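Retro notes (design track)

What went well: tokenization of the new backbones is finally stable.
What didn't: we kept losing track of which sequence belonged to which structure.
Fix going forward: every design gets posted as structure first, then sequence, in one message. First example under the new rule, 318 residues:
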């Protein structure tokens, strides 16, 4: 999420993520679930443009939602319908509430969406982190890191990770625990090329957790003693992965959706080194040594005619 400041405007690329490991514990008394996860940021990203307006009433924010040219109309419609609850806008309201001087500057916030929604890729959380970073930089507020991190935790479990990605641009992988707010840097995996396959339907996080709780799929969380093993696997070939690729949601989602089972099986047959569900779904990721392998899988899956609703994204961990 590297910012480019040109005095009156700033543009940020807000990355998607995948979960290379996700272990979810039982529902807690506060309604949340404890988890252990490895998060990895991707080249695939939304674009966020923040710009000072020459005119406009104090406190006015002009929020503009735009979409990449191939962004599905059904996703765009859902985002427009929930624009008031968009995480980017919630981040602005939280930030300007904590720092009222922000309201004295008329701003235009343009968010160009490319990351699929309800896919387990963290697009909304990434956009929220981008707003915290971008407004702070554009207006030279010099907000202390601990304050940004505190607001990120209020906004969502994945937002602190994306905030850290901005701060540590060369470190795309983190171990997260608790609700996701406790983070440790990790080495990037040896295998970085990724094919994302969106099945054509979304999975709201709340619905995924509902299915998860009903299924009784919660695991007893492994201790942090598993972390050295995961670190070793990160720098090994995917074929040596034992724990990486684990996702507590996978068994629930695979039982609910036959298409996900078929897609995973097909990607394995095509030679993917690892195939997993990202976050609470619905997107699958497949790991490859080279980008051309990912493009080859796309061609073959299109020829096989699995589903015309499928969408493919060739990207990489970075």
């Amino acid at each position: 999420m590297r910012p480019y400041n040109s005095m009156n405007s700033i543009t940020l690329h807000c990355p998607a993520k995948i979960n290379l490991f996700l272990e979810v514990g039982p529902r807690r008394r506060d309604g949340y679930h404890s988890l252990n996860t490895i998060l990895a940021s991707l080249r695939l990203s939304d674009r966020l443009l923040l710009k000072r307006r020459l005119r406009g009433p104090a406190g006015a924010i002009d929020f503009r939602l735009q979409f990449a040219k191939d962004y599905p109309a059904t996703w765009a419609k859902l985002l427009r319908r929930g624009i008031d609850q968009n995480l980017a806008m919630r981040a602005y309201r939280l930030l300007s509430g904590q720092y009222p001087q922000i309201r004295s500057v008329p701003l235009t916030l343009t968010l160009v969406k490319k990351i699929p929604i309800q896919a387990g890729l963290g697009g909304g959380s990434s956009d929220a982190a981008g707003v915290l970073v971008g407004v702070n930089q554009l207006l030279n507020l010099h907000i202390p890191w601990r304050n940004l991190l505190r607001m990120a935790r209020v906004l969502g479990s994945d937002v602190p990770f994306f905030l850290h990605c901005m701060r540590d641009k060369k470190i795309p992988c983190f171990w997260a625990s608790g609700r996701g707010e406790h983070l440790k840097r990790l080495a990037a995996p040896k295998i970085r090329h990724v094919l994302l396959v969106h099945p054509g339907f979304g999975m709201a996080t709340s619905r995924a957790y509902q299915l998860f709780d009903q299924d009784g799929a919660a695991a007893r969380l492994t201790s942090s003693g598993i972390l050295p093993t995961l670190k070793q696997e990160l720098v090994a070939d995917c074929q040596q992965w034992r724990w990486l690729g684990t996702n507590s949601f996978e068994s629930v989602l695979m039982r609910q959706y036959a298409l996900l089972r078929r897609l995973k099986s097909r990607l394995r047959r095509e030679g993917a080194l690892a195939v997993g569900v990202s976050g609470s779904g619905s997107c699958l990721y497949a790991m490859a040594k080279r980008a051309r392998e990912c493009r080859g899988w796309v061609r073959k899956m299109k020829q096989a005619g699995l589903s015309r609703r499928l969408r493919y994204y060739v990207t990489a961990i970075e």
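Added context from the reviewer: The mean pLDDT is 90.
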